[in-house]
Please model this.
Amino acid sequence: MSKKEEAVYTHLEGEKLPNFRSLSGIEYKEYYDRSDWNGELPPPGEYPFVRGIHRNMYRGRLWTRRQQAGFGTPEDGNQRIKYLLDVGQTGINMDADVPTQTGLDPDYPMAQASIGLEGTSLSTYEDLKTLFEGIPLDRVSSTLIIQPPHSAVIMAQYLLMAQERGIPWDKLIGTVMNCSITQYVGGTLQSNIAWFPFDLSVKIGYDLIEYITPRIPHWNIININAYNMRGTGIDAIQEAGFSMALAADYIKGLLGRGLDIDSFAHRMAFFTAADIDLFEEVAKLRAMRRIWARMLKDKFKAKNKRSMQWRTAIQTSALPLTAQQPLNNIVRATIQTLAAVLAGTQSIHTTGYDEAYALPTEESHKLSVRTQQIIAYETKAGNSADPLGGSYLVERMTDEIEERAWAIMQLIEDKGGFIQCYKDGWVEDQINEARYKHAEAIESNDKTVVGVNKFQDEDEEIKISIFRHAGDMQEKRMEYIRNYKKNRDQDSVKRTLDTIYDLTKNKPDVNIVEPIIEAVKAKATLQEIDDAMRQAFNFEMPK
Model:
């Protein structure tokens, strides 16, 4: 009898799960009853908002469908954004390529091999105008997925674009990610500190928040990127504890600048993951809402109800997606999307089934939007707020995740706060340990991944369309940026860059955003602005 035949007959004899633990190691009971939870729940929309931040939740308005998009040139990115809006996306997630995320122009030698591969190549003010050509900035919410210091440059470009179109800044709606630690690589240290002075990037993030807060009332000033943290391999409890501890550090930094807690807390937001353990993910998000509400009220003495309402965008986790049997990923992403809806998120990106191979094609992007639409309009999952509220299982797990997350937060605070733990390497140690455990669980079959360590297809032939870039895309971008730098007023560029250099070196307490806006007006590029600050710190990039 062949191995395949043996497997078939084994399955016919009856199957048992390898264990009954959640992905975070919480043991599921055989059943739950009143002895597990006998509490009281306030209605949705009331403190501590465990059941949702609005009383009517999706009855009042559906979550924002916000697929992350970006590749190639700004023209390419604009085309994909418009396509997604045509098929039903209701918000924009602008993703930049790795050179942009590290503050490099396309003509920089180390950037050239990565131009436009993982996101849109953005360097100049004209690039951003091209990316958003034909898109109404005061009607469509845009998320600018970029970290400091580059977030200040991209935001400066965005504000000038709005000004040029005659759109008042107080009419703009959107988010700038603006998290120095988690946006690029999710909390791993070396990659973040290799391209820009770390403490300076944190400072510029604060500068941008301080600048935005009184001027753009409907703009989210920061997104704590818990999703990227989770993608490193940590579990749901660590995702909650780490991201809340980091948010607390940012709040302390802003209070230290003299900002009132209720002037900015309601514009802080999160970007979290929805993994495949449905009940744990629902419980995690409910717990995070309650942690935030209690932290803002008790620790930071917020008075405004809006300051205590935790808001998050969700992306279905790419970590469970597999290159093997890729169509299985459609099922995984659908379950993850459902978890996000049942938990009461504000925005969802459903990850494409083909993203274990490449960027999503138009076809898979469309399917992701349709997945959300089917859940919204056909399943009735959003007809009631917090539909799993009162479930003995979900309430018990919500309490347990909250308790364990608070313990992590206290441990981090005792060590000096999240930013200090990050700089000391403690956070990366936790990530590396989690990665090892995750891999070991799959290799030992303690964690089942269908198509990988169970139910494999030995003779599998992958038949899916893979996204391809235009062959001349990178050369076009390099030619563009070279010509751009030649055809401008060099004296104006130098003058504004000199100002940024002088302020960074000699007046570090000055808010740098206005000088960056002036440099963008003068046609300075992203890397040139970043380089002026790097040089002021005598900072050398990798070669």
Summary: The chain has 20 helices and ten strands. The longest strand covers residues 268-274. The radius of gyration is 24 Å.
